[in-house]
């Protein structure tokens, strides 16, 4: 065999090896890129889960943002950058906000509700703002607003996942509790869910509300955490009351809220904060039962 033929074969073999190496390197880069994209998507669109949810896979743990044990966080909007003060709706006067701290109990650890993730469409929630439309700094302490769906849980979720370009139709909760006690996570707690329209919270610091959209009435959404109970089938009507909620719903609701540092006096209802005169939910809610369970799941730290 001539020397030139050997050279050609060596060149051909070398070319094949180089091609193989390039393919392997390209595949590894593509794999790493895919992993990075997956990670980025998870961090951008991940729902959140409370602590101690059993049987989470590694992928779920990476995807889920943990609901804080210490507080429902109010995250300032990145714009504008201002020094935050506590204000109410009475002209921006600074007020002193007491801090609360709770620890969960053994009963909390033993109760394990089921959970689902059903992220709302991005235009049905937004950022929490550090100022109102007039540029006045706001840093209200969080409240929890209780709701009911009026229809089925699936109907409410479908509404939240449907895009609504009209600001007045955009709606969502942070979480929803089904009849069987399953908790559905819809909007991350650091985001502003659109759970209440024209609304004011009357508490120890006075009347609190924040206007973040010049086309809409002021509301509590900027400092509220909205959670809803699925309405029982017998109550899906216009009557002022119904048969009430299941024991599982009360347990899961108390278990969820036990992980926050929102005090009892800042847990309210849609009916109480509404200023339109059209909201009366949650109907037939047993506050005594709820607070007994809440206090069994968390205790204040002195």
Account of the protein in words:
The protein is of the alpha/beta class. It has 7 helices and 14 strands. The protein has helices at 3-45, 58-63, 106-110, 153-161, 247-257, 270-273, 287-297, and strands at 48-49, 65-66, 102-104, 115-117, 125-126, 143-148, 175-177, 183-185, 192-193, 201-203, 206-208, 224-229, 267-269, 298-300. It has a 6-stranded mixed sheet with strand order 4-8-7-12-6-13. The chain has a two-stranded parallel sheet with strand order 1-2. Strands 3-14 form a two-stranded antiparallel ribbon. A hairpin with a 2-residue loop joins strand 10 and strand 11. The longest helix is centred in the first third of the chain and has 43 residues, at 3-45. The model is unreliable at 23-57 and 59-96 (pLDDT under 50).
């Amino acid at each position: 065999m001539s020397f030139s033929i050997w050279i050609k074969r060596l060149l051909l073999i070398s070319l094949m090896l180089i091609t193989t190496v390039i393919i392997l390197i390209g595949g590894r880069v593509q794999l790493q890129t895919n992993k990075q994209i997956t990670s980025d998507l998870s961090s951008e669109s991940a729902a959140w889960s409370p602590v101690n949810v059993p049987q989470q896979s590694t992928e779920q743990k990476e995807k889920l943002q943990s609901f804080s044990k210490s507080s429902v966080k109010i995250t300032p909007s990145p714009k504008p950058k201002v020094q935050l003060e506590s204000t109410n709706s009475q002209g921006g006067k600074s007020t002193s906000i007491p801090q609360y701290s709770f620890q969960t109990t053994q009963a909390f650890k033993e109760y394990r509700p089921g959970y689902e993730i059903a992220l709302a469409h991005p235009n049905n929630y937004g950022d929490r703002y550090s100022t109102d439309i007039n540029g006045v700094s706001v840093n209200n302490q969080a409240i929890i607003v209780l709701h009911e769906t009026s229809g089925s849980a699936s109907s409410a979720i479908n509404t939240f996942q449907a895009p609504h370009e009209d600001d007045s139709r955009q709606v969502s909760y942070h979480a929803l509790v089904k009849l069987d006690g399953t908790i559905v996570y819809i909007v991350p707690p650091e985001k502003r869910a659109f759970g209440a329209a024209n609304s004011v919270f009357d508490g120890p610091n006075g009347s609190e509300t924040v206007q973040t959209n010049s086309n809409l009435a002021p509301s509590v959404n900027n400092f509220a955490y909205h959670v809803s109970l699925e309405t029982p089938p017998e109550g899906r009507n216009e009557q002022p009351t119904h048969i009430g909620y299941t024991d599982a719903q009360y347990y899961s609701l108390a278990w969820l809220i036990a992980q926050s540092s929102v005090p009892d006096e800042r847990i309210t209802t849609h009916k109480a904060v509404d200023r339109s005169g059209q909201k009366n939910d949650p109907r037939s809610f047993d506050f005594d039962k709820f607070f007994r369970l809440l206090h069994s799941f968390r205790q204040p730290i002195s």
